[in-house]
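Quick review question:
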């Protein structure tokens, strides 16, 4: 059982000879012990990416992180470093459908998600407030209409800053976040889309899939960007269907996928296994 906090670094930047040797050499020279290391080179883009986890000799993890960040910058690398003990503050947004929300919150309460759910927010109160209380999470009702959307996003932004939120999870939050909001919030936003993107983006993808007579349906967890349903993909899954299945069957099967895909994507993000660049991701196992 791990008792000592470790450091996890995600690096990416222009590929060059010797990067692996230099990062591992820096950790060795500073008395650290590498526990996990993985890397990949995107040959087409000329980008090197690496995830490296080590047990540092120094007790001051913040100082060690700062030193490694400065070293990585000398290599031309962008780097994110987090201790293994980190529990990022998360905000969960939901609308009327609760399947992905329930699954995520149950996993959090069971200790499967290394985070702190700071609050739940919804544009509806049909069931969300009572359910959030059941999971012992603060709840905020932020109604949204076309006329009030700028004010609603401003209120949400204030809440996120007040609670120092580090990750937003859209658990079937059926409001499109504006480009202005996403640019101002400046933290990752993970969305679950009920389709195997890039197919059937936008509204009612199961109805679109039924109309096309497809033989597979899926779900996609991705980082939200100003372009709708076009952000870097974190995780996807599919299930087979046939002509015997109606739209209701597709919805039911799809919702099962949505729960699993969203939970896995959030878990990978919290474990610092996802590195996004050039509108795609590398997910380290």
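Suggested answer, residue by residue:
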């Amino acid at each position: 059982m791990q008792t000592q906090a470790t450091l996890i670094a995600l690096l990416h930047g222009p590929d060059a000879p010797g990067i692996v040797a230099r990062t591992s050499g820096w950790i060795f020279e500073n008395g650290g012990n590498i526990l996990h290391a993985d890397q990949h080179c995107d040959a087409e883009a000329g980008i090197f990416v690496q995830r490296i986890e080590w047990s540092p000799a120094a007790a001051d993890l913040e100082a060690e992180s700062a030193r490694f960040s400065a070293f990585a910058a000398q290599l031309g690398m962008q780097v994110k470093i987090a201790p293994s003990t980190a529990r990022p503050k998360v905000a969960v947004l939901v609308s009327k459908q609760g399947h992905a929300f329930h699954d995520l919150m149950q996993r959090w309460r069971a200790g499967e998600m290394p985070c702190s759910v700071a609050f739940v927010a919804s544009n509806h109160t049909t069931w969300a407030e009572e359910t959030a209380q059941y999971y012992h999470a603060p709840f905020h009702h932020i109604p949204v209409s076309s006329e009030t959307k700028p004010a609603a996003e401003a209120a949400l932004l204030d809440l996120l800053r007040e609670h120092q939120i580090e990750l937003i999870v859209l658990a079937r939050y059926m409001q499109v976040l504006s480009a202005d909001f996403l640019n101002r919030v400046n933290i990752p936003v993970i969305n679950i889309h009920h389709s195997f993107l890039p197919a059937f983006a936008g509204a009612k993808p199961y109805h679109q899939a039924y109309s096309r007579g497809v033989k597979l349906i899926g779900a996609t967890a991705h980082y939200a960007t100003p372009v709708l349903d076009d952000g870097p993909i974190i995780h996807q899954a599919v299930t087979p269907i046939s002509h015997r299945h109606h739209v209701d069957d597709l919805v039911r099967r799809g919702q099962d996928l949505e729960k699993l895909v969203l939970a896995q994507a959030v878990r990978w993000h919290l474990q610092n296994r996802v590195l996004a660049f050039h509108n795609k991701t590398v997910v380290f196992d």
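Why it works: The two ends are 19 Å apart (CA to CA). DSSP finds eight helices and 13 strands in the chain.
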